[in-house]
Specification:
Length: about 375
């Protein structure tokens, strides 16, 4: 039951929705679903690794957020693979452009993770260069070098005094016994025994030993304080470098730029980067390519038939609506013409009535004028 459900999900991912599909067609849809799921999962992991390297957040915390990117890539790849079949060059070029864009985008994220070691070294070198030029680091380094120089001068003074004592010791011994081949002939008399030169050499040896003791004492008094200052200055320098390095940009964009600079200078790395981009481009575009190779399926034929029926029904509904609109327009036109004719007849009738009324009034007025003289000429009766 679980395997069947997984197979159904893979068929759906591959674009299969028709239950009447044959076994070979279902296998093709399942293969497309596997490729889409692989593209989404790999994109998810690549995005998580790239973002985790540029932040201090644990990858486990980023997984619920970077899964969105994987889902988007898988959804777009499914839309490319399951869209309407078409042979128009414009549509093919558009889908290919989208596939290349997504593949290169994911491939570049994968390259950032693939060359993470070189990227980290490049960013660390940039951080060191920037830290070395920071005023706080320069001042701390100058102070530390001065303290180390002072400490070295103390040791050099002791070593010089000790070397002088060794030379005076050799001269004193050689004055008493000049027979050794190690004796400096130009600095001793060459006469054995205790003479004035031997006494002088012993005095010079004693003075050199006293100077050595003085120098060692001065070093022993001053060295602990200098050593403590050196340790403190070293800590301050480390803190200044740490603060300066913390200000260096280590975002995803900076890591991509460092990766680009590294691969641009190494042919092998550039080849690996191009191969990574090509892999993800093919991974995104392969479900669409497989669908083109698979040819028309029962689902495609059913969808085309449904589209034709829908288009025919739409055209029929449109024709009926147009005819009904024409009938309504003709009816309205006929009604308007009839109404206009009635209005014309009514206007003509009102005009005839008004003309007859005016004629009667004129006749009555003429008759009244004719009767007026006769009434005036009639004799009055007594």
């Amino acid at each position: 039951m679980g395997q069947r459900r997984i197979g159904t999900v893979l068929v759906w991912l591959g674009g299969g929705q028709d239950e009447s599909a044959t076994a070979s067609e279902r296998a093709g849809y399942q293969l497309g679903g596997v490729l889409l799921a692989l593209a989404g999962v790999l994109t998810w992991l690549v995005a998580t690794a790239a973002v985790a390297a540029s932040t201090s957040v644990a990858p486990a915390v980023l997984l619920p957020f970077t899964v969105v990117f994987g889902v988007i890539v898988a959804a777009v790849a499914r839309a490319l693979a399951t869209g309407p079949r078409t042979s128009r060059a414009q549509a093919v070029v558009g889908r290919a452009t989208v596939a290349v864009f997504l593949g290169v985008l994911v491939g570049e994220l994968a390259a950032v993770s693939l060359f993470s070691g070189a990227v980290d070294r490049s960013l660390d070198a940039a951080a060191d260069r920037r830290a070395a030029a920071t005023p706080a680091v320069v001042q701390a380094d100058r102070t530390l070098n001065q303290l180390k120089t002072n400490r070295t001068h103390l040791d050099d003074a002791v070593n010089d005094a000790r070397g002088y004592v060794d030379r005076m010791l050799v001269i004193a011994r050689c004055e008493a016994n000049p027979g050794s081949t190690l004796c400096p002939r130009e600095k001793v008399t060459g006469v054995p025994g205790d003479g004035p030169e031997t006494m002088t050499a012993n005095q010079r040896l004693a003075a050199a030993q006293a100077a050595l003791d003085t120098t060692v004492g001065a070093r022993d008094r001053t060295a602990p304080g200098l050593d403590a200052d050196i340790r403190k200055a070293d800590g301050l320098l480390a803190d200044a470098r740490t603060r300066a390095r913390a200000d260096v940009d280590r975002s995803l964009g900076a890591r991509w730029s460092a990766m680009h600079d590294y691969t641009a200078g190494h042919a092998g790395a550039m080849l690996s980067r191009a191969a990574t981009d090509l892999f993800f481009v093919l991974l995104v575009a392969l479900p669409w390519i497989l669908r083109q190779w698979r040819g028309e399926t029962q689902q495609d034929r059913s969808e085309r038939a449904r589209a034709r029926r829908h288009r025919a029904e739409s055209e029929a509904d449109t024709a009926i609506a147009v005819k009904q609109a024409q009938v309504r327009a003709d009816t309205e036109t006929l009604w308007a013409e009839q109404h206009l004719e009635r209005e014309k007849m009514a206007a003509a009738a009102r005009t005839a009535i008004e003309r007859d009324e005016l004629r009667r009034r004129v006749g009555a007025a003429v008759a009244a004028q004719a009767d007026a003289p006769a009434a005036l000429s009639a004799p009055e009766r007594p």
